[in-house]
Amino acid sequence: MSKLPNISTSIFTTMSQMANEYQAINLSQGFPNFPVDQKLKDIVIKWTQEEIHQYLPMSGYPSLLEKIAKLTQDSYQRKVNPSTEILITAGATQGIFAAIQALVHTNDEVIILDPSFDSYEPSVLLGKGKPIRLELNEDFTPNWEAIAAAMNSNTKMIITNNPHNPTGKIWTENDFNQLELLLDLYPNVIVLSDEVYEYITFENKHISAHHRPKLWNRTVCVSSFGKSLHITGWRIGYVVAPESLMIEIKKVHQSLIFSINSIAQYAINDYIDVVKVSELGNFYQQKRDFFRSLMQETKFELFPCEGTYFQVASYGHFSNENDLDFVKKLVTDFGVATIPLSPFYDKGKDVKCIRFCFAKDDETLIKSAERLMKL
Ligand SMILES: Cc1ncc(COP(=O)(O)O)c(C=O)c1O
Predict the structure, then answer these.
(1) pTM of the prediction?
(2) Across all residues in the chain, what is the average pLDDT?
(3) Best of 224, 341, 355 for a ligand 1 pocket test (most atoms within 8 Å of beta carbon)
């Protein structure tokens, strides 16, 4: 019998395959299509010639751990201990999985806010926890009344994602205040704060769990070098957690993967000194504005986009099709691959919205909009 009977191939894989099959423009999966920084490529070439090809320490290359601690200090004014509070992981995905396996016990309830990233629920189910899926409000802000009503003595974890995939929504001070008030009532609840788009926010700055000292002793913060350095294929990220939680997470990590690719760690250790992640917001803001201006010429209604490189749009006012059929038609008849929102919801609820990834060069964005205008 399957351990995950209701889970099938992810929508990201399905849509990227369809994009290849029909040679459509791929605005589905969240990755950039522009070249990686030449400086980073040169650093990789240099390191491949050195004798750095064997296992690194389980938690990560010590120098890179120190640089992550410095980045956390510079970005959030939070001091973390590089040897006890940071773990380098095979992308955020593995950090999330390891944290859930380590910290969620049989029948523990884990609150997931929908629409939600597709790795959360399977990770909870494999850890024998109970996913409690709650919808965000219509404007995609957290529904604090519903969250408060769902919390009880069985709640072990709440998974938050800010900036949010797929909606591009970011949390406010008030959201953090509400969370902290609730957590005061439930001292054993852990926060898994997925912040892979932490450096991609626009008019309003990202507020991180790292900014909130009250959360530090109970929060696992998840970051992704894939997202922050435009290298999603390298599969590298990290988690920051208090030592008491990290001890448990490392027990899972060492059985799952032991340690992360040495060349990637050496290369990022050098590159992090020359790259300015703080400029990522401006970089993607230009792309967002450009894409949104192009999309004004189409029939889609665009939701606000405060962060991430995703734009959500609704089509319910001009088509009744379910979102899976709708995105398939966009590929086959119009040559543009996108992501439907239903796979992000419990039981595939269809809200007649789709997601575009605008981490693409201008030419790709222009061509996509031209095709979508024909709808
Ligand atoms: C919200 C969210 N969390 C986690 C991940 C996984 O990140 P990584 O590629 O570093 O595993 C993604 C990737 O798209 C994401 O959108």
Answers:
(1) 0.98
(2) 97
(3) 224
